[in-house]
Input
Amino acid sequence: MACMKLGSKPEAFHLDGHTLLCSTGLPSDVIVEVGEMSFHLHKFPLLSRSGVIENLIGESSGEDERNCVLQLHDIPGGAKSFLIVAKFCYGVKIELTALNVVSLRCAAEHLQMNENFGEGNLISQTENFLNEVFGDWIDSLKALEACEEVLPHAEELHIVSRCINSLAVKACADLSLISWPQSGCEAAEGPEGHVLWNGIRTTSKRHSVCDDWWYEDVSRLKLPMYKRLIMAVESRGMNPEKISGSLMYYAKKYLPLMGRQSSFQNGNRSAPGSTTVSALSEADQRNLLEEIVELLPDQKGVASAKFLLRLLRTSMLLHASPSCRENLEKRIGVQLDQAVLQDLLIPNLGYSVETLYDIDCVQRILDHFMLVERDVTDSTNCIVDEAQLMVGSHSLTRMTMVANLVDGYLAEVAPDVNLKLPKFHSVAAVIPDYARPLDDGIYRAIDIYLKAHPWLTDSEREQICRLVNCQKLSLEASTHAAQNERLPLRVIVQVLFFEQLRLRTSIAGWFFVSDNLENNSQDQSGNLALTGRSTTQDEIVAVDDMRERVSELEKECMSMKKEIEKLVKTKGSWNIFCRRLGFKLKPNSCGPRASKAYNKSKGSSPTSTTPLLSTNENMHSGKLE
Output
C-alpha cells in the first residue's frame, strides 16, 4: 500500500483520558474541542496553517485570551483526523495512506489549509498523494471505502467519482496487458522485477489473470458505491457476462437465502459451496435484491437460469416488489430451456396457500417463454412441419427441452391433492403437440395425477387424457396404459388400437423383406458356386429368424384381441360397447392366415391395416376427443 511521510519532528503529543496535551514545554493558550476530545494546543502553529482557525482565534481575541476555546465538532473525520492535522501543523512526523488521505483531504478543505497559509500545505500534499493512490487498484478501493465516513465532503470534492473512475478503468483494462511473476518460482527475483538465474538476469515468468479477478475486491463495497461502480464499468463497454458475474457474486455474498435449497424434498439447507457474510436486515436485503435485478444486463443468457430462479425464490421470501418479481419471471422465461427441474420447484409462499408449489408462477414463466418463441417464429416466418421436426431446428430443440421440463414438473406436483384439474390442465396444454417427440412424460404425469385424485369423474378423466397422443406412446408406455385401470375405457381401447396398427405394419414389413430374400436366393441359385455356400446359409438363417419374429408378433396381436374382449365383457354387452365407442369388431382380425393374405394383397392401403377396429377420424388422429 502506498504511503507518504511528512514532517520531521518526533512525537510531541500524549493522551490523558479525553484530553490531548502538547509536550513542547510551553503552556497551552488555546483549547480545541472536537466531539468528546479536547486538544490543549498553541495558537501560532494552528493559525499559520488554517484560515478557519485564524478567523476563529481572531473572533475570540477580545475575550480572555487564557481561556480561548474553539469548537470544531463538524470537522470531517472527527478527532482522529484533527489529531493528524495538529501534528502536521506542528511539523511532527505523520504518514499519509489510502485509508486516511480522504478524511485528511476533506478536513484540510474544511479548515482552509491552502497555499495562502504556507507553501506545501495540507490540501496540496493530500491532493498529490491522492493522484498516487488512484494509480493503484487496491489503494483506490481502500480510498473509496474510506469515503463512506465523510461522504458529503468527499462527494463535494469529487473524490468518490475519481475513485470509481480509477477502478472502472482498471476493471475494463485488457487482461492480456495485466500480468505478474508467478508465485512459488524457484529462482530469486531481482530488485527491478527480473529473475536472477545462475547469475544471469532474465525476465520473470508471467501468468494471465482470470476475468473474475475483481469480483471479490469490489464485493467489499457497500451497495451505493458498488452500484455506481457497476454503472461505470457498463458505460465503459464492459462485457455483460463479466458484469453479471460480479452481480451474482455480490448477491450470493449478502443474500443468505440465495444459498439455500428450500424445496420440500431436501428441506431448507445450504447449497454446497455457498458462503455469505450477511448481517443485513430483511429490509436491506430486499433493497439489495431489487437493485441487483435492476443492474442485471438485459442480454439473454448473461445470468444463468439457476441463478435467476433462486433470485426469484429469494424475492418471494423477502416480499420484493411485484415489478421486481415480474422482471425476474420474464428473464427466466426467455431462457427457460436452460432451467433444471429442481430449481423450478418453488414453494408456494402466498397468503392463501392452496398448493405446495407455486404453480401460477411457473405458468407465467411458461406463458412468457411461449410468447417469445411465437415472436421468433413469426419473425422468421417459420412453419412447423414434420420435416423440421425430423431435422430438429434450434427453436424446436428449445421447445422440446421445455416440454420435457414441464412434463417432469407436472409429475412432481401431481401428487398434491390440492392441485385442481384446471390448473394442471392449463400448464400441460401450453406445450404444443409437435414439441413432444414422445408423450411418455405427459402420460406419466397424468397417471400420477389420476392416482392422487381418485374422486375425478369420468368426464374429467377423459378431459385430462385428451392431453396424450396415443400414437406417440412408446411400447413400454402403451403396455402400461393398456393395463392401467385408472384410465377411461375409451383411452385403453384407443391405445390397443394403435398398437395393433403398429404390429400389422411391422408384420407387413417382415413379410416384405422375407419375400425379397427368398426371391433373391432363387435368382442367385445358379451362381452358388461363385458366391459360396456360407452366404446362402446366412440368408436362410435370416429368413427363419424373421419368420419366428413374425410368429411372435402374431401371438402378441392375438393376446391384445383377447384383452379387448375382456374389457368389453366388463362394461356390458358387445352391442352396447360398439354403440358407445363407434367401432365394430371384424372376425379374422389377425393370425397367420390373415397376415399372409395381407402380405399378398396389392399395396398397403390404409383400409387394409385396420381389420381389428373400424373407427372414426378421431381414432386415426391419435388425440383423445
The chain has a mean pLDDT of 78.
